[in-house]
Every structure is written in C-alpha cells, then in structure tokens.
Amino acid sequence: MKKFLFILFVTTVAQAVSAQPADERRDFLASLFADWRYQVGGGVAVGGTAPLPMPRSIRRIEAFNPLLNLYVEGLASRPVVGRWGIAAGLRLERKGMKTKAQVKNYRMEMTADDGAFMEGAWTGHVETRVRSVYLTLPLLATCSLGRRWQVSAGPYLSLCVRGNFGGAAYDGYIRHYDPTGEKAYVTHATYDFGDDVRRWAWGVQAGAAYRCTERISAQAALDWGLTSVFHSGFTAVTFPLRPIYGRVGAAYLF
Fold this sequence. Notes:
With 254 residues, this protein is mainly beta. Helices cover 11% and strands 64% of the residues. Strands 1, 2, 3, 4, 5, 6, 7, 8, 9, 10 and 11 form an eleven-stranded antiparallel beta sheet that branches.
C-alpha cells in the first residue's frame, strides 16, 4: 500500500508539471534550485559514548582519551522566509574514545586470556575503546543573526558503516550470572561488542557558524545521540550508551 501511494503521488506531481506550459515548467524547476548555497568543510570532534545518568556500577573514571575524530561534510542551504532557512547535507565522521574506569557489579560478558568465556557481575577495572564510522544526514532549520552569524538546529540520521566497541577487564573478580553468584578472580580478559553496534541511529544537533570572509566560515556544533549505540536486543550492557560529541571546523562556501 505504501509503495502504491508513493507511485500515485509521484505520478500526480509529474502529470501536474507536464500539464504546465513549457515556460512555466522552466520557471517551476528553476524555483526549486534557486537561492541554494553550497559548502564543504571538515574538522575534529571530541566527546564520548556515555550513559546518562552515570550508573552506580561505575564508581570512578580513571582516564579518558578523546582520540582524534575527523569529519568531512557537504551542506546545502537556502533561505525560506526572513532570517529563517533550511539546510541538509551529508557527513562522514568518526566517533571514538578510550576510557578506563573502576566498576563494581558491572554487567559483563568477556573472554579470559586462557579462552574461558564468562558472564556476570564484574568488580575491578574496565578499559573501553570505541572507534565507529558513520555516514550522517542532518536536516536543519537555520536562522541568520546579522551578516556574519548563523545558528542551526535539527535532527540527524546516521548509518554506521563500521562499528568498533571493545576493550578489556582486568585486576578484579566476576560473580557468575549475578552479584550473588560464584566468585572467580580474573587477571585479564577481553570483550568485543562491535557486531552489536546499532546500524541506524538518530539524534539532534545544534550549532553556530561565523562568516570569516565571503567564502570561509568557522563552525561549531554539538551532536546529541538519542539512541543507544547498541541495538535493542543487546543485553551485555544493561544501560543505554549514547554518543555525545562536540565538533569544531571550517567550511568553504560556493
């Protein structure tokens, strides 16, 4: 039914356009592409994939490394009415970090160095490494504040083209299955949840741009994920982890 309605809509629009005189069709098509501005740019992103609020099982963050997360982006924008406009684009970006934390009764599935698989409540230290690559489509509303400043906000949709999420658990013990289970001491074990990273994700972003010259602008934005990085059926981590990253960069305007 949805496919039929889509075909019917496209056919109706095509017939309406073809029924117009040639001059009117040219004017209509020209109006669709009029007043669009294009830009390409890039920069760096800093942030993390974090639970909010912080669960009680994470007792202390011992180290945090934001890694070097680069992005490139193409964006098209046009005014709509007054200071207001719209923008859409495509962004290739990496979101990654490395953390070390001290945890207690932290739900974990891991493989010890001797090959034994274990799951349960982990108490000890955890090292987490995230290095995922996304293809992101932002859909934004824009507002011009004078000749140089512009702010924007709106949702984004991301496709994970490469998901890496893993790490190590060390110097602690695990109680099998739950916090009251049998205790086993572990010197070092590893885990890899890369295959469980959600393929499609979405969130919201807000940012500002400053026109340095006629062609160059400086930009900053905050991306706030509204979905967990893992799919809904994932149970190895009991709380949602959302990507929250700030971006700083520059763009060239055509």
